[in-house]
Design a protein that fits this description.
Elements lengths: L2 E4 L6 E3 L10 H5 L9 H10 L12 H19 L5 H13 L4 E3 L3 H8 L4 E6 L4 H9 L7 E4 H4 L6 H11 L6 E5 L2 H9 L3 E5 L14 E2 L2 H8 L2
Parallel strand pairs: 1-4, 1-6, 4-5, 6-7, 7-8
Antiparallel strand pairs: 2-3
């Protein structure tokens, strides 16, 4: 094994508000209107508006991401009748793209990546918008990866074959020399379909939708134990 490739969400980071689509300061900016968050009406509105945050589209930079975040908030506002001002919409979109507090970082991630970097080449492969790269860089984590590929720079999401091909090309790696770590069974199956080994990350604090039939780790310590097998 020469290369370790990691998903981001559910493996390296988790949503601190419990929802990947919420700006961290949403309740603060909404004020009394925040009582509608997590209501059935709000959850329906989120589903109706989620196409604005489609991570399979090409989004070259944070500027374009912020425009999509604005459109998402505007669409939510229309359905929730919050009557947000232009400044409030702008502030929510900025919080999406500029506030790293939106994510929590699993405490075992940095130490393990630093340790593994001495033995393997590391890659990241994530369905994500450009802002995640900035947040990882600010944390000092992005610098540990030899290559990082996000879906909005490819124009596809896992398990699309193009995603795996992109990280293999970036690492100049053969599939058989790679182990891929993700929390979603379909993404793991996409990796094994092109010849990678795969391990599911099923952290108790961020449980995946389902377990798969292959090897499962619940922490990076458990993953470390699997690497020698």
């Amino acid at each position: 094994m020469k290369h370790l490739i990691f998903d981001c969400g559910g493996v390296l980071v988790y949503p601190r508000l419990g929802d990947w689509k919420l700006p961290y300061k949403m309740a603060e900016i909404l004020g009394a209107r925040a009582r509608d968050m997590y209501s059935a009406r709000f959850l329906l509105a989120q589903r109706q508006c989620e196409h604005w945050l489609d991570e399979s589209r090409l989004v070259p930079d944070i500027q374009e991401e912020r425009q999509l975040r604005q459109a998402y908030i505007q669409a939510l506002d229309e359905r929730m009748d919050w009557r947000l001002s232009g400044d409030e919409i702008d502030n929510l979109a900025a919080d999406f793209t500029e506030n790293p507090l939106r994510y929590g970082f699993f405490s075992d991630a940095m130490p393990a990546l630093k340790r593994w970097k001495e033995r393997y080449r590391l890659g990241m492969l994530s369905d994500a918008m450009p802002s995640i790269l900035v947040f990882l860089e600010q944390r000092g984590m992005l610098q540990l990866f030899d290559a990082a590929v996000i879906s909005t720079h490819v124009g596809a999401i896992k398990p699309d074959k193009r995603m795996y091909e992109a990280i293999l090309k970036a690492l100049d790696a053969d599939p058989g020399d790679c182990l891929f770590v993700d929390d979603r069974p379909c993404n793991l199956e996409g990796a094994t379909a092109i010849g990678m080994r795969a391990v599911q990350m099923a952290r108790p604090a961020c449980l995946p939708e389902a377990l798969w039939d292959g090897p499962v780790a619940r922490s990076f310590e458990e993953l470390d134990g699997l690497l020698g097998q």
